UniProtKB/TrEMBL annotation:
Chain ranges passing through the membrane: 12-34, 46-64, 84-106, 118-137, 158-176
InterPro entries reported for this sequence: Cation_efflux, Cation_efflux_CTD, Cation_efflux_CTD_sf, Cation_efflux_TM, Cation_efflux_TMD_sf, CDF_Transporter
GO MF annotations, alphabetized: cadmium ion transmembrane transporter activity; ferrous iron transmembrane transporter activity; zinc efflux antiporter activity
Subcellular location(s) per record: Cell membrane
GO cellular component terms, semicolon-separated: plasma membrane
Top-level taxonomic group: Bacteria
Family listed: Belongs to the cation diffusion facilitator (CDF) transporter (TC 2.A.4) family.
Name of the protein in its database record: Cation-efflux pump
UniProt record, GO biological process: intracellular zinc ion homeostasis
């Protein structure tokens, strides 16, 4: 399976910067036209989107660098730093929104809420939704934490923007102007949750969290099906580093097997893993039969 070149991810991140700047301008225009606190909170989050897109672009440029003497495993973990930074920025955005919304909730004011301003904000949300879809799909295809995090953040922005638009329109039609700052506070809470999710996932990558259960089962199945000649594989360990997956395990072979025969099994297993998981780095420690632990992966 052919994987897009890492530079493609950088170009997508640069596109995110451009889209985020356009959306930022549209949302501040919508706020200027309506003077809505909720729309102001929506515009503030777009500032965070611009900063996050810039962070993702820089991280992806670093992650695309090949392995060197000081970084023999490559630079792919740089993407996690971007995702963590984005989570922190989201929290700061939520605090800014709450600071604007709480006083407005105590003293609600009439919303100008011109329908033209709401239409401008809706247009920005549509643009965001289209781009978020692209980022999420490509983030999964490229196995890029930075792109996937950016896409989920933008999609979260779309959901909150639609909710804000509905609420502001309802406040304008009913005269219940307290709905405006109340919605802004709900937006802030949703943003906080989104930031927490991003930070939790990214910290897991920085802490060398293992692959998910389904991926581990796939790996074990491949080892069992393609390890003919070996007796067992044990002490399986996995971890993610951006788009790369590292797989390490011990392979037990008959004591009389030659190094050349054992190496041939290793090559076969590695080829099978790479066919299923293109961005995988495999380390195999070969052991004689007396080292068998009689658990782990038994070869079919």
């Amino acid at each position: 399976m052919t994987q897009p070149h890492p530079q493609f991810a950088s170009r997508l991140a640069l596109g995110s910067v451009l889209v985020a700047c356009i959306v930022l301008g549209l949302k501040f225009l919508a706020w200027y036209m309506t003077k809505s606190v909720a729309l102001y909170s929506d515009a503030l989050e777009s500032i965070i989107n611009v900063a996050a897109a810039l962070a993702a672009f820089v991280a992806l440029r670093v992650a695309a660098r090949p392995a060197d003497e000081n970084h023999p495993y490559g630079h792919t973990k740089a993407e996690y730093f971007s995702a963590v930074a984005e989570g922190v920025l989201i929290v700061l955005a939520a605090i800014s929104i709450l600071r604007a919304a709480i006083p407005a909730l105590q003293n609600p004011v009439e919303i100008a809420a011109s329908y033209e301003g709401l239409a401008v904000n809706l247009g920005a949300s549509v643009l965001n939704a289209l781009w978020a879809t692209v980022l999420v799909r490509q983030g999964r295809a490229l196995r890029s934490p930075a792109l996937a995090a950016d896409g989920r953040h933008v999609m979260s922005d779309v959901v909150t923007s639609v909710g804000v638009l509905i609420g502001v329109l309802a406040a304008r039609l009913t005269g219940w102007y307290f709905l405006d700052p109340l919605l802004a506070m709900l937006v802030a809470l949703n943003i906080l949750w989104s930031g927490w999710q991003l930070v939790r996932e990214s910290v897991g990558g920085l802490m060398d969290a293992g692959v998910d259960k389904d991926t581990e089962l796939r790996i074990r199945t491949i080892l069992s099906q393609h390890g003919e000649g070996a007796l067992e594989m044990h002490d399986l360990r996995t971890r993610h580093a951006g788009r790369l997956t590292f797989v390490e395990f011990h392979m037990v072979v008959p004591g009389a097997m030659t190094v050349e025969e054992a190496h041939a099994i290793c090559d076969r297993v590695e080829d099978a893993l790479r066919a299923e998981m293109p961005d995988v780095s495999v380390t195999i420690h070969v052991e004689p039969q007396e080292k068998a632990k009689h658990h782990g992966v038994l070869v079919l």
